Amino acid sequence: MNIAVCLCQVPDSASVIGFVDGALDRSRINEVMNPYDEYALEEAVCLKERIAGSFVTVFSVAPPSAKEMLRKALALGADRAVLVNTITEPSDPYLIALFLRKALIACYGEVMPELVLCGKRSTDFQHAEVPSMLGELLGMASVSGVTSLDVSGDNLHLEREIEGGTEEITLHFPAVLSAEKGLNQPRKTTVRSVMEARKKPIDLLTVTVEETPFVFMSSIEPYERKKVCHFIESEKELVELFAKEGFFL
Amino acid sequence: MNKYLVFLEQREGALKKSSINIWNRVQEIAASEPGSTVTGLIAGPANILENASLFAGEGVVYHATGEDLRVYHQQYYASLLVELMQENYSALFFADSSLSRDLAPRLSVDLQASLLTGELHTDKNGIPDGCVRPLYSGQAKALFAPQRHVRIYNLSPLRGRVAGFSCESHIQVLPIRLPQTGIDLLLSEVRRIVFRENSLDIAEARIIVSGGRGMGGREGFNMLEELAALLGGAVGASRFAVDEGWRSHREQVGQTGKTVAPELYIACGLSGAPQHLAGIVSAGIVVAVNSDPHAPIFQVADYGFVGDVHLVLPKLIDAVKEFLKKN
């Protein structure tokens, strides 16, 4: 079984999102693999370990600096990495999905992978749109926010969290799935796996997309939300406040 | 002049209040634009009369009552909406949910429509022109503008309760059928939905009592359960509490959890990391209880209580009980 995993880079939790003269200052940002993509990759590697003859290829639409992240993906168990070269990293989910579709076609030709795994969303832009868009572009079923995945023969049994419950979904290959927190516990790299990853290929691929973006980020600014906090001294005062604001039905 | 379509989501035959909120918001917009219309769509059997009084304004609500549509089904729902959107609607509105998150991106590609997620942004005439959303763990916010004529808005929960004007609203419900073409092969199927008992979802709760590291463990949350039950609210949790296994991920508020918009958010033993605050930007009144007077949560709180949650909460619970007994 061929499994494709789509990865992107996001600032790590220690990064400082600063602004200089009203523009985003990227100098104090250190990029790492998107946490949700780690769940997607881990699931792909687990499937590979269970199903003989499986092959995991990771894709990233990113500048050359993403090679380090792809190396890590190889150390975590992927077999091959493809860096989809772009001059600037597109921020529009539709364009990213188009780039990924072209890259998948370039790598797999007529026989598309049985499974395409993505993270549910990136932690920087948080669109959470690329996986379903890619599913539509590839003509495959897509399920977003998967928390449990089980393969039996040609069928997939999935669970996803919805408001107030869990949906149990059955589908067959091929499919695009996006991983939610809780799907698995991603492994760590070992010295040995890092050494082995050096022998695995990172291919550079250049594709072009003619389409124009669906959305345009017209402004970005720091999030200011300071309030003046009124300090309360007793529990009773708090209850009176609840009553005054009409919180008791 | 715009034609707006609002998707009214039903779950187990009951219309979601969050969708009716969006309907009413879109009615407000249409009211300021002469000639604009608002149309609704309900997919699946639903009891409309139950919530009829909550609908404001006027317009047609199409109701596809087919059993096939009772539970969410990506292909059926997409085909129904794509067919209806052929009637030249300028914008389609969703209330943000697990369903809209799954469906809207596919529709965006199929309809070549700009998909905008977050809080609705309007121009000086009150016409929608984009969405504002927190980025980078809530450290920045950005405005996204549509680049296509047709737009799909997936809107964060609107705070406050739905208020319709039953005497002034004129809603006409018309049946509509699921188009029979275009679905030759069933790609996926929802076999069943397992609902949790007594579960008020934090995304829909009016009041949320949330806890973090300071709760000290799983048992600490029992106090929050009790307080939430007394107030008719739901329990939320910080990432730390979820990662420690004290609470389920579905209760996580923030960057890697849910965005919530309750009228009252009570943050207990929770320091207020930017990632957490990103999830409560739409909350109404924020009350923080924390032993550290310098905790960042106090900078975004309307009311603060400096003290150990293990001492404050039992007293607060007693005070609430006493109040409820008297009134």
Overall pLDDT level of chain A: 92
The assigned structural class of chain A equals alpha/beta
Widest sheet: strand ordering of chain B: 9-8-7-10-6-1-4-5-11
Which CATH-level-2 architecture of chain A?
A: 3-Layer(aba) Sandwich
β-strand percent of chain A reads 25-35%
Number of helices of chain B: 7
- Cα radius of gyration of chain A in angstroms: 21 Å
H/E element sequence of chain A:
EEEEEHEHEHEHEEEEHEEEH
Number of helices of chain A: 6
How would a textbook summarize the main sheet of chain A?
9 strands, mixed
Oligomer: heterodimer
* Helical/strand content category of chain B: alpha/beta
| N-end to C-end Cα span of chain A | 56 Å
* Spatial strand arrangement across the major sheet of chain A: 11-10-9-12-8-1-6-7-13
Total DSSP E strands of chain A: 15
The CATH class of chain A, by name, is Alpha Beta
CATH topology of chain A: Rossmann fold
Based on CA atoms alone, the radius of gyration of chain B comes out at 21 Å
Q: What best-fitting shape of chain A do the alpha-carbon axes yield?
A: globular
What is the helical fraction of chain A, as a range of percent? Answer: 25-40%
The tally of strands of chain B reads 17
Report a brief summary of the structure.
The complex is a heterodimer of chains A (249) and B (327). Chain A is α/β, with parallel strands linked by helices.
Write the layout of secondary structure elements.
The complex is a heterodimer of chains A (249) and B (327).
Chain A: E1 2-7, E2 9-11, E3 18-20, E4 23-25, E5 31-33, H1 35-50, E6 55-62, H2 67-75, E7 80-85, H3 93-108, E8 115-119, H4 130-138, E9 141-152, E10 155-162, E11 165-172, E12 175-179, H5 191-197, E13 202-206, E14 215-222, E15 230-231, H6 235-244
Parallel strand pairs in A: 1-6, 1-8, 6-7, 7-13, 8-12, 9-12
Antiparallel strand pairs in A: 2-5, 3-4, 9-10, 10-11
Helix pairs in contact in A: 2-5, 3-4
Chain B: E1 3-8, E2 10-11, E3 14-15, H1 17-31, E4 37-43, E5 58-64, H2 74-85, E6 91-95, H3 98-111, E7 114-122, E8 128-135, E9 140-146, E10 151-155, E11 170-175, E12 188-195, E13 207-211, H4 221-231, E14 234-237, H5 239-243, E15 264-268, H6 274-277, E16 285-290, E17 303-306, H7 309-326
Parallel strand pairs in B: 1-4, 1-6, 4-5, 5-11, 6-10, 7-10, 13-14, 13-15, 15-16, 16-17
Antiparallel strand pairs in B: 2-3, 7-8, 8-9
